Amino acid sequence: MSEHTHRPVPVLEAVAGIVPPRVVSNEDLPAHWDTNDVWVRRRTGIGTRHWVDEGTSTGDLALAAAEAVLAKSPAGDVDAVVVATSTPDHPMPGMAPVLATRLGLGGVAAFDVSAVCTGFVYGLATASGMITAGIARRVLLVAADVYSTLISPDDRGAGVVFGDGAGAVVLRAGESGEAGEVLGFDLGSDGAGHDLITVPGGGARGRAEPGRYGPADCHFRMSGREVFQHAVTRMTESSLAALKNVGWTTSEIDRVVAHQANARILSLVGQRLSISDDKVLGNISRVGNTGAASIPLALADAVARDEIHAGEKVLLTAFGGGFTWGSATLVWPEIV
């Protein structure tokens, strides 16, 4: 590339979040789970979560979030759609082409990203790369999950944690130094932990080995205690790597928005980064763990509550099944 060639940079211009209307408090959880509000709050920090009603799918929430963010976004054509999810409407095809058509976006590039709870950060990196490479000028990124449809009715451990939701952002090509510029990333994975957050059945492995999996294997499974320490360690290390990539120190960070996995995980990550609790934003107490949607939902919530402001240095970090993890740095834009 010639030194005179202009390279666009990805700039965040809008964010929105959607949760289904049905609120499920800790008192509303199934009686056979033998739990109560104090027990759930002490272990997870969650008081309520939102679950979809029958007939509502991940794609429906993704559409609502996409429409909301496009309504907030300045006029302009979206020429790529990226969807991050691990609860797609169908194993095939991906959700993004269907979403693009439902939005009336015609023949734009559209595809899915599957990185479980790290999906939004991976999707953000993908969308940013498309802009930097000149492939797209404006990208719609939607992260959506409906774990309530994937969890076994008998799985109290996962059932109390997960909620449903969708979040969306629009990125555009901009100029270096603009507020909203997405500056850098750190991404990683370790497949040795693949079986600690998984849906073992329902895929090609099961079809290749008939009889290996039963109906129960099509439900989500997570080894919570083992995952806990991995999540804290990986998000901390990834955050430090992402900060190093852009020359920031932890003391310079104004806001941290981490994947809303568990309140205790969020607190420990903040402590290990030496970042005070008032800088760590989140909404897990109200919406639970919403998978890939958790970071954009938390960002949209922070905007609505006036907890994040233009010019602030923001760190995003996540950990999910795979294992996957990732962090991103950006300067927050002026968003109404």
Automatic annotation (TrEMBL):
Residues 260-264 are annotated as: ACP-binding. GO terms for biological process: fatty acid biosynthetic process; secondary metabolite biosynthetic process. The keyword Lipid metabolism applies. It is found in: Cytoplasm. Keywords: Acyltransferase, Cytoplasm, Fatty acid biosynthesis, Fatty acid metabolism, Lipid biosynthesis, Lipid metabolism, Multifunctional enzyme, Transferase. It comes from the Bacteria. GO terms for molecular function: 3-oxoacyl-[acyl-carrier-protein] synthase activity; beta-ketoacyl-acyl-carrier-protein synthase III activity. Residues 111-191 form the Beta-ketoacyl-[acyl-carrier-protein] synthase III N-terminal domain. CDD domains: KAS_III. Pfam families: ACP_syn_III, ACP_syn_III_C. It catalyses: malonyl-[ACP] + acetyl-CoA + H(+) = 3-oxobutanoyl-[ACP] + CO2 + CoA. Residues 243-332 form the Beta-ketoacyl-[acyl-carrier-protein] synthase III C-terminal domain. It is an enzyme of class 2 (transferase). The active site is at C117, H259, N289. Its EC number is 2.3.1.180. It comes from Lentzea waywayandensis. One of its GO terms (cellular component) is cytoplasm. The last Arg residue of the ACP-binding site is essential for the weak association between ACP/AcpP and FabH. Pathway: Lipid metabolism; fatty acid biosynthesis. This is Beta-ketoacyl-[acyl-carrier-protein] synthase III. Homodimer. PANTHER family: 3-OXOACYL-[ACYL-CARRIER-PROTEIN] SYNTHASE 3, BETA-KETOACYL-[ACYL-CARRIER-PROTEIN] SYNTHASE III. Catalyzes the condensation reaction of fatty acid synthesis by the addition to an acyl acceptor of two carbons from malonyl-ACP. Catalyzes the first condensation reaction which initiates fatty acid synthesis and may therefore play a role in governing the total rate of fatty acid production. Possesses both acetoacetyl-ACP synthase and acetyl transacylase activities. Its substrate specificity determines the biosynthesis of branched-chain and/or straight-chain of fatty acids. InterPro entries: ACP_syn_III_C (IPR013747), ACP_syn_III_N (IPR013751), FabH (IPR004655), Thiolase-like (IPR016039).
